[in-house]
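Milestone 3.1: sequence recovery, worked example.
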Protein backbone atom coordinates (compact mmCIF):
# COMPACT_ATOMS: atom_id res chain seq x y z
CA UNK A 1 0.00 0.00 0.00
CA UNK A 2 2.82 2.40 0.87
CA UNK A 3 4.54 1.68 -2.44
CA UNK A 4 1.32 2.34 -4.39
CA UNK A 5 0.77 5.60 -2.55
CA UNK A 6 4.37 6.65 -3.23
CA UNK A 7 3.83 6.01 -6.95
CA UNK A 8 0.67 8.13 -6.88
CA UNK A 9 2.53 10.99 -5.18
CA UNK A 10 5.39 10.77 -7.65
CA UNK A 11 3.00 10.67 -10.60
CA UNK A 12 1.12 13.74 -9.40
CA UNK A 13 4.32 15.75 -8.93
CA UNK A 14 5.82 14.57 -12.22
CA UNK A 15 2.63 15.31 -14.19
CA UNK A 16 1.65 18.64 -12.61
CA UNK A 17 5.05 19.97 -11.59
CA UNK A 18 5.09 22.81 -9.08
CA UNK A 19 1.27 23.06 -8.79
CA UNK A 20 1.10 19.37 -7.87
CA UNK A 21 3.79 19.89 -5.24
CA UNK A 22 1.88 22.87 -3.84
CA UNK A 23 -1.39 20.95 -3.56
CA UNK A 24 0.24 17.99 -1.81
CA UNK A 25 1.94 20.20 0.77
CA UNK A 26 -1.26 22.16 1.43
CA UNK A 27 -3.09 18.89 2.06
CA UNK A 28 -0.22 17.60 4.22
CA UNK A 29 -0.46 20.75 6.34
CA UNK A 30 -4.15 20.18 7.04
CA UNK A 31 -5.68 17.02 8.49
CA UNK A 32 -5.03 15.00 5.31
CA UNK A 33 -2.28 12.45 6.09
CA UNK A 34 -0.08 13.08 3.03
CA UNK A 35 3.41 11.91 4.09
CA UNK A 36 5.97 14.65 3.53
CA UNK A 37 8.64 11.93 3.65
CA UNK A 38 7.41 10.82 0.24
CA UNK A 39 6.89 14.32 -1.19
CA UNK A 40 9.84 16.57 -0.44
CA UNK A 41 12.67 14.05 -1.00
CA UNK A 42 11.21 13.25 -4.43
CA UNK A 43 10.97 16.96 -5.21
CA UNK A 44 14.63 17.32 -4.22
CA UNK A 45 15.54 14.40 -6.48
CA UNK A 46 13.78 16.08 -9.40
CA UNK A 47 16.09 19.06 -8.91
CA UNK A 48 18.98 16.86 -10.09
CA UNK A 49 19.83 15.96 -13.67
CA UNK A 50 19.29 12.30 -12.85
CA UNK A 51 15.81 13.15 -11.62
CA UNK A 52 14.99 14.97 -14.83
CA UNK A 53 16.34 12.11 -16.93
CA UNK A 54 14.13 9.68 -15.01
CA UNK A 55 11.19 11.59 -16.52
CA UNK A 56 12.73 11.68 -19.98
CA UNK A 57 13.96 15.28 -19.68
CA UNK A 58 17.34 16.69 -20.68
CA UNK A 59 17.86 18.43 -17.33
CA UNK A 60 16.40 18.93 -13.89
CA UNK A 61 12.64 19.48 -13.63
CA UNK A 62 12.72 21.56 -10.45
CA UNK A 63 14.84 24.25 -8.82
CA UNK A 64 15.76 23.92 -5.13
CA UNK A 65 14.98 27.56 -4.20
CA UNK A 66 11.57 27.37 -5.89
CA UNK A 67 10.79 24.08 -4.14
CA UNK A 68 11.62 25.63 -0.78
CA UNK A 69 9.44 28.69 -1.42
CA UNK A 70 6.51 26.52 -2.54
CA UNK A 71 6.95 24.30 0.51
CA UNK A 72 6.84 27.24 2.93
CA UNK A 73 3.92 29.04 1.25
CA UNK A 74 1.89 25.84 0.87
CA UNK A 75 2.54 24.81 4.49
CA UNK A 76 1.39 28.24 5.69
CA UNK A 77 -1.71 28.02 3.49
CA UNK A 78 -2.77 24.60 4.75
CA UNK A 79 -1.97 25.43 8.36
CA UNK A 80 -3.95 28.68 8.17
CA UNK A 81 -6.98 26.81 6.84
CA UNK A 82 -6.87 24.47 9.84
CA UNK A 83 -6.20 27.36 12.23
CA UNK A 84 -9.23 29.29 10.98
CA UNK A 85 -11.34 26.16 11.16
CA UNK A 86 -10.42 25.76 14.81
CA UNK A 87 -10.83 29.47 15.57
CA UNK A 88 -14.19 29.80 13.82
CA UNK A 89 -15.94 26.62 14.89
CA UNK A 90 -13.84 24.70 17.37
CA UNK A 91 -14.40 26.69 20.55
CA UNK A 92 -18.18 27.16 20.12
CA UNK A 93 -18.57 23.44 19.44
CA UNK A 94 -16.53 22.53 22.51
CA UNK A 95 -18.49 24.95 24.68
CA UNK A 96 -21.74 23.45 23.46
CA UNK A 97 -20.90 19.76 23.21
CA UNK A 98 -17.69 19.47 25.21
CA UNK A 99 -19.53 18.07 28.22
CA UNK A 100 -20.04 14.84 26.28
CA UNK A 101 -16.25 14.61 25.98
CA UNK A 102 -15.76 15.67 29.60
CA UNK A 103 -14.31 18.98 28.41
CA UNK A 104 -15.32 21.90 30.61
CA UNK A 105 -15.05 25.63 29.86
CA UNK A 106 -12.25 25.72 32.44
CA UNK A 107 -10.30 23.18 30.36
CA UNK A 108 -10.64 25.39 27.29
CA UNK A 109 -9.38 28.36 29.29
CA UNK A 110 -6.38 26.32 30.38
CA UNK A 111 -5.68 25.40 26.76
CA UNK A 112 -5.82 29.05 25.77
CA UNK A 113 -3.42 29.95 28.58
CA UNK A 114 -1.06 27.14 27.54
CA UNK A 115 -0.92 28.26 23.90
CA UNK A 116 -0.46 31.84 25.04
CA UNK A 117 2.64 30.84 27.03
CA UNK A 118 4.05 27.84 25.14
CA UNK A 119 2.25 27.88 21.78
CA UNK A 120 5.30 28.98 19.81
CA UNK A 121 7.51 26.10 20.90
CA UNK A 122 4.63 23.63 20.64
CA UNK A 123 3.78 24.55 17.04
CA UNK A 124 7.46 24.55 16.05
CA UNK A 125 8.20 21.11 17.53
CA UNK A 126 4.95 19.68 16.15
CA UNK A 127 6.17 20.20 12.58
CA UNK A 128 8.74 17.45 13.15
CA UNK A 129 6.34 14.90 14.67
CA UNK A 130 4.10 12.49 12.72
CA UNK A 131 0.35 12.78 13.30
CA UNK A 132 0.82 15.92 15.39
CA UNK A 133 2.04 17.98 12.42
CA UNK A 134 -1.29 17.37 10.66
CA UNK A 135 -3.41 18.38 13.66
CA UNK A 136 -1.58 21.04 15.68
CA UNK A 137 -3.14 23.99 13.83
CA UNK A 138 -6.65 23.03 14.98
CA UNK A 139 -6.02 23.35 18.75
CA UNK A 140 -3.89 26.44 18.08
CA UNK A 141 -6.91 28.00 16.39
CA UNK A 142 -9.32 26.88 19.11
CA UNK A 143 -7.04 28.44 21.73
CA UNK A 144 -6.77 31.59 19.60
CA UNK A 145 -2.99 31.47 19.66
CA UNK A 146 -1.70 34.90 18.51
CA UNK A 147 -1.66 34.72 14.72
CA UNK A 148 1.76 36.38 14.19
CA UNK A 149 3.39 33.88 16.56
CA UNK A 150 1.54 30.98 14.91
CA UNK A 151 2.60 32.04 11.41
CA UNK A 152 6.21 32.63 12.45
CA UNK A 153 6.65 29.25 14.13
CA UNK A 154 4.76 27.42 11.39
CA UNK A 155 6.94 29.04 8.73
CA UNK A 156 10.13 28.24 10.63
CA UNK A 157 9.18 24.63 11.40
CA UNK A 158 7.85 23.80 7.94
CA UNK A 159 10.85 25.41 6.22
CA UNK A 160 13.34 23.47 8.35
CA UNK A 161 11.45 20.18 8.03
CA UNK A 162 10.61 20.44 4.34
CA UNK A 163 13.98 21.94 3.44
CA UNK A 164 15.81 19.15 5.21
CA UNK A 165 13.83 16.50 3.35
CA UNK A 166 14.38 18.31 0.06
CA UNK A 167 18.17 18.40 0.58
CA UNK A 168 18.07 14.72 1.57
CA UNK A 169 16.45 13.81 -1.74
CA UNK A 170 18.86 16.01 -3.68
CA UNK A 171 21.93 14.48 -2.03
CA UNK A 172 20.74 10.87 -2.18
CA UNK A 173 19.72 11.11 -5.82
CA UNK A 174 18.23 7.90 -7.16
CA UNK A 175 18.58 6.28 -3.72
CA UNK A 176 16.12 8.71 -2.15
CA UNK A 177 13.11 6.36 -2.36
CA UNK A 178 14.66 3.42 -0.51
CA UNK A 179 15.86 5.71 2.29
CA UNK A 180 12.57 7.63 2.45
CA UNK A 181 10.61 4.37 2.65
CA UNK A 182 12.71 3.23 5.60
CA UNK A 183 12.28 6.61 7.29
CA UNK A 184 8.54 6.40 6.67
CA UNK A 185 8.40 3.08 8.51
CA UNK A 186 10.15 4.71 11.46
CA UNK A 187 7.70 7.60 11.14
CA UNK A 188 4.79 5.16 11.36
CA UNK A 189 6.23 3.56 14.50
CA UNK A 190 6.60 6.98 16.13
CA UNK A 191 3.07 7.85 15.01
CA UNK A 192 1.76 4.68 16.63
CA UNK A 193 3.52 5.53 19.89
CA UNK A 194 2.09 9.05 19.81
CA UNK A 195 -1.43 7.72 19.22
CA UNK A 196 -1.06 5.28 22.12
CA UNK A 197 0.21 8.08 24.35
CA UNK A 198 -2.72 10.29 23.36
CA UNK A 199 -5.17 7.46 24.04
CA UNK A 200 -3.64 6.89 27.46
CA UNK A 201 -3.88 10.59 28.27
CA UNK A 202 -7.46 10.66 26.99
CA UNK A 203 -8.48 7.70 29.14
CA UNK A 204 -6.80 9.25 32.17
CA UNK A 205 -8.58 12.54 31.49
CA UNK A 206 -12.00 10.88 31.18
CA UNK A 207 -11.50 8.78 34.33
CA UNK A 208 -10.47 11.85 36.29
CA UNK A 209 -13.52 13.80 35.08
CA UNK A 210 -15.85 10.95 36.04
CA UNK A 211 -14.36 10.75 39.52
CA UNK A 212 -14.80 14.49 39.96
CA UNK A 213 -18.41 14.23 38.83
CA UNK A 214 -19.08 11.38 41.26
CA UNK A 215 -17.60 13.41 44.12
CA UNK A 216 -19.70 16.43 43.18
CA UNK A 217 -22.89 14.35 42.97
CA UNK A 218 -22.24 12.48 46.22
CA UNK A 219 -24.45 13.70 49.12
CA UNK A 220 -22.61 15.53 51.86
CA UNK A 221 -23.00 14.33 55.44
CA UNK A 222 -23.16 16.48 58.53
CA UNK A 223 -22.72 15.57 62.16
Amino acid sequence: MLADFAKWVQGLIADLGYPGLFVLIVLESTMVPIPSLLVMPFAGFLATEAGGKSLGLDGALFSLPVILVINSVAALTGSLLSYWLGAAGGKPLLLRYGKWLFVRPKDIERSEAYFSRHGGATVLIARFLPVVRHLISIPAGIARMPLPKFLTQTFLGSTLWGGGLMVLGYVLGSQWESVATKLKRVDLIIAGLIVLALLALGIRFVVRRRRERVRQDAPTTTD
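The CA atoms of residues 65 and 133 lie 23 Å apart. The two ends are 68 Å apart (CA to CA).
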